[in-house]
Write a structure and sequence with these properties.
Blueprint (H helix, E strand, L loop, with lengths): L2 H12 L10 H8 L9 E6 L4 H14 L4 E4 L11 E3 L2 E2 L2 H11 L11 H15 L4 E5 L16 E4 L7 H4 L3 H8 L9 E3 L4 H14 L3 E3 L5 E6 L2 E5 L4 E6 L5 H16 L9 H10 L7 E4 L3 E4 L5 H16 L6 E5 L7 H8 L5 E4 L10 H6 L8 E3 L3 H11 L5 E5 L2 H12 L9
Parallel strand pairs: 1-5, 1-6, 2-5, 6-7, 7-8, 13-17, 14-15, 14-17, 15-16
Antiparallel strand pairs: 2-3, 3-4, 9-10, 10-11, 12-13
Helix pairs in contact: 1-4, 2-5, 3-9, 3-10, 4-5, 7-8, 11-12
C-alpha cells in the first residue's frame, strides 16, 4: 500500500464522523462539480434487503461475458476499499483512488459535509465515466429513496426482496421498508421484483403504477425450474434458457440469478443481443466473496454475511443440508453483529443447528461487544464461548473442530472481512457504509 493511498483511506475513514445521512442534496453537489458523470452511461439499479449484491455481481458478470464494458459498484467491501468499484471485474487501482479522493475532497471551510458513502459513490460515478463504461451496475447502499446511488436515471431497476433490516432508518413495518426501497423506481423504467411478502409487493406495485413503470414479477412474469443440482431453467416474458448454473452456493442464489437475467431481459436485451452462451459464462464464472464462501476444508469453514432474520433463514437451510451430509458433524459458529440488529430473531433461525457458539467483536462503533452478544444469546442447550478478537475466535474454532466438522462465520460482513483477513494474512480495517 502506497503512502498516498494510505493517506486517501485515512481521509475516507475520517468521514465516518458524519455518520449515515440519507438524502440526495450532497451527492448532487459533488457530482455537479464534475459535470454529472452519472449521466454518461446506462445504469442498472439494484436494491432490496438481501441478495442485491449477489444479483449485481451476476448482472455485471453476464454483461462482461457479452463483451459489454461494465462497471460495478457495491458495498460494503470485505477487506480492501477497492472492492467496491470495479470495471470489467478489475478493482479500481490505488492511484485512481488517490486521484478521485483528491477531486472530491472537501475542505474544512466548506458547508458541504459528505459522508463516507456519499464520497465513495461520487468516486464510482466519476471513475465509470473516465473508464467509458457502457453500463454501470449499482447496488443500493441502504433503502433506496434517499440512498446516494439514487441520483441516477436507470434503464432498469431490480428490487430483489423486502424484509426487516435497518429499521431505525427505513421503518418498522414491511410496508414502510418497501416504500423506501420502491424509491428507486423511475418514470417509465422497467422494474423487476423477486420473492417478497404480499404487503411489500403491493407497495412496490402501487409505486410502479404511479410511475408508469412496467412491472416484471418473479413467479408471475418470469420463473425458474430446478433441473438438477445447481442447474435451472429460466422462463421469462420473451426469453427462455435451460441448463443454466450459478457459481454461487445456495438455492436462494438461483432466484437471484433469475432476477438478474430478468433485469437484463427487460432493459439491455431490449436493444442488444445477449446470447445464452454469455449468460451461461457469466453465471458460471461469477464470484461474490463472503456469501456461502468456503475458506477451507477438513474442517470445512464457510463464511456468510447474513445479518438479518430473512438471511439467517436461508443460511440455516443451506447449513442443514451440509450437516445432514456428514454423520456426527458438529456446527461451530463464530458470530459478531451490529448492536442495532434483531439479534434474537437472527439466531432463532440458527441456534437449533449450532453445537458451539463463539462470540467475538471488531473495533467498530456499531458492532456489539462480545459480552453484549453473549448476554443476548443465553441458552442452556448450546455452549457459548467468547473471544476478544476475530484472530482469537479463529484459533479457538481450530482447537474445537475435528476434521469433519463445519465452522460457519456469520452475523456481519465486517466479521467475514476480518476472518478472511486472518486466513489471508491481510490487514483489515473496517469502514462504515
Amino acid at each position: 500500500m502506497s503512502e498516498s493511498y494510505h493517506a486517501s483511506l485515512t481521509y475516507l475513514y475520517g468521514l465516518q464522523k458524519h455518520g449515515i445521512k440519507l438524502g440526495l442534496d450532497t451527492i448532487r453537489t459533488l457530482l455537479a462539480q464534475c459535470d454529472h458523470p452519472e449521466r454518461k452511461y446506462s445504469v442498472l439499479h439494484i436494491g432490496g434487503t438481501n441478495g442485491k449484491g449477489s444479483s449485481a455481481a451476476m448482472t455485471a458478470a453476464i454483461l462482461q461475458a457479452a463483451n459489454i464494458r461494465v462497471g460495478l459498484y457495491t458495498s460494503p467491501h470485505l477487506i480492501d476499499f477497492r472492492e467496491r468499484i470495479q470495471v470489467q471485474g478489475v478493482k479500481i487501482p490505488e492511484s485512481r483512488v488517490v486521484d478521485l479522493v483528491q477531486r472530491f475532497r472537501v475542505g474544512s471551510h466548506s458547508s458541504c459535509t459528505p459522508t463516507f458513502f456519499e464520497t465513495a459513490t461520487a468516486m464510482a460515478f466519476q471513475y465509470f465515466a473516465e473508464e467509458e463504461v457502457e453500463v454501470a451496475v449499482l447496488e443500493v447502499g441502504m433503502g433506496g429513496r434517499f440512498d446516494a446511488t439514487n441520483v441516477c436515471d436507470p434503464s432498469g431497476v431490480l428490487i430483489t426482496n423486502v424484509s426487516y433490516d435497518h429499521e431505525a432508518y427505513l421503518g418498522h413495518t414491511l410496508e414502510a421498508i418497501a416504500f423506501e426501497k420502491a424509491g428507486i423506481i423511475k418514470n417509465g423504467v422497467p422494474v423487476v421484483i423477486g420473492t417478497m411478502d404480499e404487503s411489500a409487493r403491493d407497495v412496490i406495485s402501487q409505486k410502479a403504477k404511479e410511475q408508469g413503470a412496467p412491472l416484471c414479477e418473479y413467479g408471475r412474469d418470469f420463473t425458474l425450474n430446478v433441473q438438477g443440482e445447481g442447474v435451472f431453467e429460466y422462463q421469462g416474458p420473451t426469453q427462455h434458457f435451460s441448463g443454466l448454473s450459478c457459481a454461487l452456493q445456495g438455492a436462494h442464489q438461483l432466484v437471484n440469478a433469475a432476477c438478474a437475467v430478468a433485469l437484463l431481459e427487460k432493459s439491455v436485451m431490449a436493444s442488444r443481443v445477449i446470447s445464452r452462451e454469455a449468460i451461461v459464462r457469466g453465471l458460471s464464472s461469477v464470484s461474490w466473496e463472503g456469501r456461502l464462501e468456503t475458506l477451507m476444508t477438513n474442517p470445512t469453514w464457510v463464511c456468510d454475511g447474513a445479518h438479518n432474520p430473512a438471511a439467517a433463514r436461508k443460511l440455516a437451510h443451506h447449513l442443514q443440508g451440509m450437516i445432514e451430509n456428514v454423520p456426527s458433524r458438529k456446527l461451530i459458529m463464530i458470530v459478531a453483529m451490529m448492536r442495532d440488529k434483531n439479534i434474537a430473531a437472527f439466531f432463532a433461525e440458527l441456534l437449533p443447528l449450532a453445537d458451539v457458539i463463539i462470540c467475538t467483536q471488531i473495533d467498530h462503533f456499531r458492532l456489539a461487544t462480545g459480552d453484549e452478544l453473549k448476554d443476548r444469546l443465553l441458552t442452556g442447550s448450546v455452549p457459548i464461548h467468547q473471544a476478544s478478537t476475530p484472530e482469537k475466535a479463529v484459533a479457538l474454532a481450530h482447537r474445537i473442530a475435528n476434521s469433519h466438522d463445519l465452522v460457519c462465520v456469520t452475523g456481519s460482513l465486517y466479521l467475514v472481512g476480518a476472518v478472511k483477513s486472518v486466513f489471508s494474512g491481510s490487514t483489515y480495517a473496517p469502514l462504515v457504509g
